Amino acid sequence: MSSVRFKIYRLHFTAPLHISDQREDASISQKTIHSDTLHAALISCLAKVGKHVPEDGDFGCVISDLFPYYQQKKDSEPTYFLPMPFQSTLPQLADPADAKKVKKVQWVDAKLYSDLLNGKKFFRGNSEDLKMVQASYLTKTELPLDAKGSRDFVKSEVMQRVKIEDRSGKEPALPYYVDRISFKDYSGLFFLASEDTTRLDEALQILAMEGIGTDRYVGYGFFEYTKDENDLLFDVPDEASHQIALSMFIPESEEQLNDILDDDKVAYNFARRGGWITTPPYNTLRKNAIYAFLPGSVFCGTTDKYCLGRIANLRPGGEIGGQIVNHPIWRNGRSIMLPIRL
User: Fold this and answer.
1) Is pLDDT of 326 > 80?
2) Which is deepest, 255, 272, 289, 298, by most CB within 10 Å?
C-alpha cells in the first residue's frame, strides 16, 4: 500500500451561488463546480491583471472538481466529501427501502475513501454501513437536521426576478426564475491540488474578489478561501486494475481512450463542454465543443503519476469584424486519478 497526498483549498461562500449547466436554464443550478470551469476562471484572472499565462494553458498543478464539505463553525473540523464511484453493478439488498436509500448516495466521507479505494465493500448486509447514509452522503459524522428533516447541507432556493427589455415602460417586464445555492453553517466547496501551486495561489486571491459562477453583477459567487494546514492523505492500493477520476477528464488520444475503456467493469458519465467566449471583442462567438468524462468515472489501468488527460484548445474558427480569434480558449481535461480496487 502506498500513500498520496494533496493540498486542500476550502471555499466558504459569503453570497449565494449560481452555476449554469449546459442547458443554460437559470431555474436550475449545479451544486458543484467542475475543475475545467475553475481552471478557466483562474486563467482569466491571471490575464486580467497582466500576469503571465502559460502558452499551453498549464499553470503548473492539477486540480480536482469542487466538492462539498460540511463545517459547523469557522474553527470546527471540516468533513470533506468525494464522489461515489460510478458502478457497473449496484449492491443487491434484500430490503427495497435500503436499496433505494443506498442508490441516492453520491458523496463519500474522505475518511472512508482509502477503504473504498482498497476494495472495501459497503452495504453488503451491514446495518452499520446503512447508518452512515445521510441524505446523499456516506459518513460517520452526524450531519444536522433542518426544519424539513433533511441532512443535506447544500441548499437550493428558486427566486423570482424580472427582466426589463425596454426601459421606456412600453414593453412589459418579463419574470424569470433563478436557482441559487447556499451552504448551511460554515460549509462550502473544496478542491484538491497537487504539484506546484504558486500560480494557483496567486490567481485564487483575484478570483475571490471577482467571484465565480453567473450573476456576479448582482453579488452572487463571492467567497473567502482557506488553504488547509493539513494535506488530504490517501492510502492507495499498490496493485489495482482500475482508477477513478476526481476531475473532468479529456483523454490524450484515441488510443488512450480505447485502452481505458477496454473492460466490462468500467463505469462512467460525460458532459459536453463549450459555451460562449467571454473575452472582448469575441463575446458573440461560441467556443468549439468537446466531451469530457465526469468525476467519479472509473476506468481500467492505472498511472503512477496520479494524473491523466490533456488541456484542449477550443478556439473557434471564423471571424468577427474581419478579425480572427487570435488567442487560445483552454479547456482543462487533466484529471487527478486514484487507483481503485474493484
Assistant:
1) no
2) 298
pLDDT at 126 over 70: no
CA distance 332 to 21: 17
Whole-model pTM above 0.85? yes
Chain segment 75-103, per-residue pLDDT in tens: 999 999 999 999 867 677 777 888 888 88
Nearest residue to 12 (alpha-carbon basis) of 172, 137, 214, 182: 182
* Bridge partners for 183 per DSSP: 154
Determine if residue 56 is left, alpha or beta; phi over 0 gives left, psi from -120 to 50 gives alpha, anything else beta: alpha
Band of pLDDT at residue 283, cut at 50, 70 and 90: confident
177-186, pLDDT tens digit by residue? 888 899 999 9
Distance CA 39, CA 238 (A): 30
The b-or-e profile of 238-253 (16+ CB within 10 A means b, else e) is eebebbbbbbbbbbee
Other C-beta atoms within 10 Å of 171: how many?
10
Output phi, psi for 138, to 5 deg.
Answer: -110, 110
**Sole residue written with cell 468525476:** 295
Note the pLDDT tens digit of each residue in 213-259.
887 877 888 999 999 989 999 999 988 999 999 999 999 999 999 99
- Grid coordinates of 133: 447514509
What are residue 234's DSSP bridge partners? Answer: 4
* Cell reading at 80: 470533506
Helix (H) or strand (E) holding 138: strand 137-138
The pairs formed by 157-161 with CB atoms below 8 angstroms and a separation of 24 or more are 157/16, 157/181, 157/182, 158/27
- C-alpha 165/C-alpha 144 separation (Å) is 43
Give the whole-angstrom CA distance, residue 20 versus residue 212: 11
Letter for the amino acid at 115? D
Which residues have a Cβ under 8 Å from the Cβ of 50 and sit 6 or more positions away?
Answer: none
Nearest one of 5, 80, 9 to 233, comparing CA atoms: 5
Instruction: Give the ranges where 49-92 is alpha helix by DSSP (H).
Output: none
The ranges assigned to domains in the chain are 2-340
Of 241, 253, 248, the closest CA to residue 303 belongs to 241
Q: Is 188:154 a contact under the CB 8 Å cutoff?
A: no
